[in-house]
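Troubleshooting log. The previous structure file for this entry was overwritten by mistake, so regenerating from the original sequence record. Sequence copied from the archived sheet and checked twice against the printout by T.R.
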Amino acid sequence: MQTGIVEIVGKEALQLQIDETMHETKPHGTEAFPFQCYHIHIDWSSLRETAWHWHEELELLMIESGTMVCSIGEHSLTLQEGDCILINSRMVHRFERPEQAGFASCECISILFSSEIIAATRTIIHKKYVQPVLHCGADYIMFRMEVPWQGHVVELARQVCHICRTQNHMVEMRIHMELCKIWMELVEHLDEYRQEPRGNQNMVMQARLRQMLQFIADHYAEQITLADIAQAANISQSAAQRCFRAGVQTSPISYLKDYRLARAKEKLLSTHLTVFEIARSVGFDNAGYFDRSFKRAFGMTPRQFMRQEAEKNTLE
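Regenerated output below.
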């Protein structure tokens, strides 16, 4: 079992493993101990943003140096050195390069853990103390040092990192104890961040968004319309637009187009089909429009992209 800090350096290591619904498929920790702590270095000169993704685990993120923008659904937060945030389970989010000049990199600690590390699902502890936090309606919780209980959470999170780094005796037990202390603070102060009315709507929105994302993943090669995408979640076209804007900050049709281009990029590297055949296979009927869209998205035409990759392989 790996509980120590995992070094992640550069753009390649931040290419997240996600499925068609944006679910991050990489396991964090093990089934026996669903916890992992990552030490992440992001070089903004080689990375603009990570992919939109979500996971069952909660994510406790601490910025050690530099700056990043954390987008969580419809929220966009600029995080700086010393900031600490908890991203709730199953929330669609991504990390982005800040627009301000002068921030070349960001160093952060990311702690991902399943709520079951606090208590197993069937227990009274999970029902009384874990579920209320998971279902509180808050997409995220920011912790400020000037608020005593929140500052205590930050110190506890730092203690978890210290345990991971030093690999002390009984490391799993020590991590579990510190996470339980954090959870007790969350339960004790639940009323300060609870957002029940909006939270219920947000849970529905996230569920509908995942239904529509899955529909796009299953049918992107077909000539589908906004009406088809909306029907997948049994909602109106305007409601589908709102879901996508709130969840991934784009429209359903723009997301569909980007998804098709991403699949086309993969096929350009993995098949011997012609460019037009690949365009048709991902839902583009017009080769000229496909070329223009590909260049707008990736900075080069499909043929230029294939030549560039071929030259890289020759050099290797």
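The two ends are 34 Å apart (CA to CA). Archived copy saved in two places this time.
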